[in-house]
Write a structure and sequence with these properties.
Blueprint: E1 7-11, H1 15-21, H2 28-46, E2 51-58, H3 59-64, H4 67-86, H5 88-92, E3 95-100, H6 103-106, H7 109-122, E4 128-136, H8 138-155, H9 163-168, E5 180-183, E6 203-206, H10 216-228
Helix pairs in contact: 1-2, 4-7
Amino acid sequence: MTDLPRHIVIIPDGNRRWAKNKGLRPWMGHKEGVERIKELAKEADKLEINCLSFWLLSIDNIKNRPKPEINFLSNLLCKYLKDLLKEKIIHEKKIKISILGFWKKFLSPKLCVAIEKVIEATQDYDQRFLNLFIAYNGIDEMLEAVKQIETQARKNPDLKITPDLIKENLFTKGLPPVDYLIRTGGEPHLSAGFMMWDIANAQCYFTKTYFPDFGKAEFRKAIQEYQKRERRLGG
């Protein structure tokens, strides 16, 4: 049986469809989705998963969703981040919280301040890792990495382009490769080049369950599925 994955990434899709099915306003699904994030983070800790990541907001989400929904999400994320800092487990287990993406460019000043506080408060922790991708797009991340490497090459003509150099210029430079990618919501695809470098050898799990219904039982089911698989890296 395969060992537990070291790094799990969850794409929490289906919040708005879940709300629509219940006759609620679309963004109420996001509120329930945050509760699932809390639940799954605690379950991952019980399972001793070293690194857990969630893709919360893409750049397209921010640009294209109705303004009232984005404002609601912004306030919701502010509260979530403030509550995270009050969680004893974060400090007792030395869980480093990273917020990855172009959030400084796209988010409100209020939310940026909340992000900066949580990053600063946990920046020296190194036992476990919780990563939130906000205002993130994998294609833009890779383009930014290429631009940075181009700048370095101009200063150093002998610079060798290696996998390590590319990784060092990504948002995810401090994270291990993804072992397991879980996407809820019934759409078995990836979007916007999500973590394109880091998911090169990842196993994928797609479920029709909308994220607000993807609780700890579903999470354990997905991990059991991973453990049954035989990983064939590179082939």
